[in-house]
Automatic annotation (TrEMBL):
GO terms for molecular function: phosphomethylpyrimidine synthase activity. Gene3D superfamilies: 6.10.250.620, Radical SAM ThiC family, central domain. Zn(2+) binds at H454, H518. This is Phosphomethylpyrimidine synthase. The gene is thiC. The keyword 4Fe-4S applies.
Amino acid sequence: MSLDEIRPSLPLSDVSSRSSSSCGTAVPDSAAPDAASALSPPSRPPLPHAPRQPAETVVTTGPLPGSRRTWLLGADTDGELRVPMREVVLSTGDSVVLYDTSGPYTDPTVNIDVRRGLAPLRAPWIDARGDTETSVGGGVGVGGRAEGENGAGVRTDGDNGAPLETVNGQVGAIGGRQVRRGARALDRGALTQLGYARRGEITREMEFVGVREGLPAETVRAEIAAGRAVLPANVNHPESEPMAIGRAFLVKINANLGNSAVTSSIAEEVEKMVWATRWGADTVMDLSTGADIHRTREWILRNSPVPVGTVPIYEALEQVGGRPEELTWAAYRDAVIRQCEQGVDYMTVHAGVLARYVPLTARRRTGIVSRGGAILAAWCRAHQQENFLYTHFEELCEILAAYDVTFSLGDGLRPGSVSDANDEAQLAELATLGELTQVAWRHDVQVMVEGPGHVPLHLVEENVRLQRELCHDAPFYTLGPLTTDIAPGYDHITSAIGAAVIGWHGTAMLCYVTPKEHLGLPDRDDVKAGVIAYKIAAHAADLAKGHPGARAWDDALSDARFAFRWADQFHLALDPETARAFHDETLPAPAAKSAHFCSMCGPHFCSMRLSQQVRSDSGEPAPTGPGLVQAAPRS
Ligand code: SF4
């Protein structure tokens, strides 16, 4: 084949327009598994008079190019436990099976209707345990009535007072809004995954995680029981697929969503959630601060296959007109209960921002940069009192225990610049978070601890060491960290560098940063850029930690690259569409997809082609394919 045969026949501008991705209608190279429908979780019945789905609620569906959804079966459950994975089918006939966060959206056999929400995968497991009751009074026994509750088992949405029906305790879908009645614990001991684990019980959720991660279920239970891992799984979010966050597991990533008072709509935020999980987000946080805060969260929860986190103080602040000094424990508690009943899986709680720590930030270069931290610092100063989240922490534990909501103990005093990294304020708060971790554990409430922020590379390892010492090995969940402050517009890169290193040293989950950090609300493209950057960081950390399953993915891609199996290389990529589009930019012809060179070096200088020739001349055998490789989960 000559270079002319595969040279682009179109101007580059035409090529790029023709190669633009169309992920919403992507067609897999292989058929979906026949057993897919039989393996689906219980579905919700269609609601009578369900409104037609308007265009603005259509979300991205369909598998990634070259992938299909497949299932691993639980070993001890007679095939009842089916764990969805992503299978990349190679041209050699081999398969690579990868951890999959995308939920049913990449399964072409599932009819997606965001107005009905996802099927409640975990509902039968929760019901079978028999330790929940349906709350009709808005947090009965743990803090009184939630706002929006009209006392007749029919709730209003809190935004406009319009009635929202419930149907047999399940999600209703009336007028484009959804709500479900809240379940909570009966008084039979904590229903948290930590409580079960400490009592020696292996739940279906733990089994699910074990299958997905390639670990024994007993290991999952033991890590949770020791507090070294969390399995965020509110009983009111049965749509979620179980996952674990801890040092012993694959490094996870979180993507932040949420509208603000300035821009973005509910439909956009739901699509961002679907989009983020499509590319690999293990959890999402709804950080909405504008109007429709309650309704936005409801839509995200009912459609999210991954755990959802929030920062309840944002909603509490909305309830008091945005004035921090007007905040009360009661307003905060009611916001927490509302969110518990909706199904939020983990909550950032800035209980470690103590009044005496606030003056420590006065000499900082960038002061307090956490929204929650700044709100509580303002409250403490206005009232000359201790942070009400700290003084009411035991009550908060009782509430979260009733729904199995996980604490994400917030770092309200995290550094906002490398100049402030590891300073006295940050470390004082960290010590308090360690104290609160033990309080939560006494209530069987799961805990992870949040960390910075902005940290130069040489201080990253110390952050992990101090967190482990002070917080008793509770999982660490860090924002980045950004390793330099000089690149606004590229902070997904400045922070992914720090994320890879802090993940390598033991951080369990990495909160993504997008290119818009410090500059504006991220859009869909920014979300993808942030997620991909953080998937790279998390995977690099898994490789550095020596996870053999992680390495198998790299090896499969390297084999495809060296063998010039271009389609396999694209399909194994974190972002198959971009990989193919870049190749198409200069070599779009079908014949180029088997050529033994690309446009980077050209045919005469292709080192891999020359290397293959050397290998062939010396009589060395060609590399063999991977067979069936379970790549991301550890073996
Ligand atoms: S031309 Fe260069 S970049 Fe392209 S495949 Fe060969 S060695 Fe790799």
